[in-house]
Every structure is written in C-alpha cells, then in structure tokens.
Amino acid sequence: MQIHIYDSLGQIGVAAGLRVAAMVAEKPDCVLGLATGSTPLPLYNELVRLYNDGIVDFGRVRTFNLDEYAGIDISHEQSYHRFMADNLFSKININPANTRIPNPSPQDIAAECAEYDAAIESAGGIDLQILGIGGNGHIAFNEPGSVFPRSTHLADLTEDTIEANKRFFASADDVPKKALTMGIGSIMKARSIIIIATGRSKAKAVKQMTSGDVTPLCPASVLQFHPCVTVILDREAAELL
Ligand code: F6R
C-alpha cells in the first residue's frame, strides 16, 4: 500500500483526480469502479474541473458503482443513482449507457447480482476502483462479519452504518436496511485501487486497514493483500498511523 497524507480536501481531490485522469488518458475506454458518500466528492469536483478545462474526455469511459440501497426509488434524492447523476455524470461527457449502478428493485435479486458481476467481467474487469471506508472498516457495503463475501450480493447494513448514514435521511428509520453491493472478491479483482479516507471518525479503521490483522472484522484490511492500492488520507484520518 502506498499511503499519501494531505492537508486539505482540495489537495485530496487533486491527488485522486490526477490519478483518475492519468488512467483515462492512458486508456480512454477504461473501466472505473465508483463510490458514493461524502468522501469522493472532492475527487468528483476535481474530475468535473478537469473535464471543463478540456483535460479529460470521458466519452469512452465505462463505470460500475459499488452499491445501491435495496428498494430505494432511483429518483429518491439519497439514491446512489441520483448521487452519481447530480455529482458527476450530469457534469461530464460520459455516455449514460456506459454507466452501471446496481438496480435497487430487481425482480430477482440473485439474477441481478450475477448479471452485475458478469457485466464487469465482460467489460474486461475494473481498471481503477475508487473506495471510501466506513468508520467500522467496511468497504462498499461489505460490513464486518465472519466471511469475506466474494461477489455482488444483498447485504444487511449494520447499526453503525445506519447511524453513520442517517445524516442524509430524515431519521435513522428512513435509512434503507439493505443494499446491493459488490463483494470483497469483486473489489479485489480490480487492477488498481484508490481508497480515500477523511476525518477523525475514520482514523481507527484506517489504522486497522493499513497495519492491523487481515480479518473480516475489518473488511478493508483485505486490501493489504492487493498489489496496487493507493491510500489517500487527510491528517485527521491518518492521526493513528
Ligand atoms: C459508498 C460506499 C461506502 C462508503 C463509506 C464511507 O458507495 O460504498 O462504503 O464509501 O460508507 O462513506 P462516507 O464517504 O459518506 O463517509
């Protein structure tokens, strides 16, 4: 793991954005794995800036998002479909047909999950995966548990995650309790990974991820086994390193 620590969210956006831009320059039809939540916003703002400045062309880029709340209406303002449209896709020249996010209300959940994994495979796999990390060490919605889930699946959100995400909803009761999420196996197949963490609430998980035991109790710790991971932190998230 290569660890980089920055003073501001602006610098984090630039550091991550330039890495994504380099990938797109090198491989214009690359496959990006994308995350939602507060953490990637400086990155997405930077990608929009690079696009507006004519530096990056997303015309042939393909994307797969990590996850979506099960059962949420895709027009709901907290759906990850809306998040991606509002914060990135509507602001760059990506082809909507080249963007995939798990369907929150499939007729057959197992078939949707299998089809999602198959679509990633047939796109050639993910070249660069963007991740955030939960305060409990989750990546995507792979919550601390007794096994590392291999592939896309329906996951139960833990109380910690519902608590952390209630800031986006009217109350904790309104946070969906399940999500469709790429598995640890799907994430580990990505050829390169950037994981970003900001704020003191992530410091313990960052410490466990980077130097703790590799254990499903901290799902992000599995990234120690990946050959190409860049960790981008602010000083608060890095304070226990
Ligand atoms: C989002 C995702 C989650 C978040 C994590 C951190 O697509 O997969 O694992 O990355 O919960 O969320 P924020 O960035 O809101 O602190």
Write the layout of secondary structure elements.
Blueprint: E1 2-6, H1 9-26, E2 31-34, H2 41-52, E3 62-65, E4 67-69, H3 80-87, E5 99-100, H4 109-122, E6 128-131, E7 153-156, H5 159-165, E8 178-181, H6 184-188, E9 192-197, H7 203-211, E10 229-234
Parallel strand pairs: 1-10, 2-3, 2-6, 3-5, 6-9, 9-10
Antiparallel strand pairs: 4-8, 7-8
The structure holds fructose -6-phosphate.
What value does the average pLDDT take? 96
Q: For the largest beta sheet, what order do the strands appear in spatially?
A: 1-10-9-6-2-3-5
The beta-strand count equals: 10
Which small-molecule species are bound to the chains here?
fructose -6-phosphate
Q: What key phrases describe this protein's structure?
A:
binds fructose -6-phosphate; alpha/beta
Summarize the structure.
Helix content is 30%, strand content 17%. The chain contains 7 helices and 10 strands.
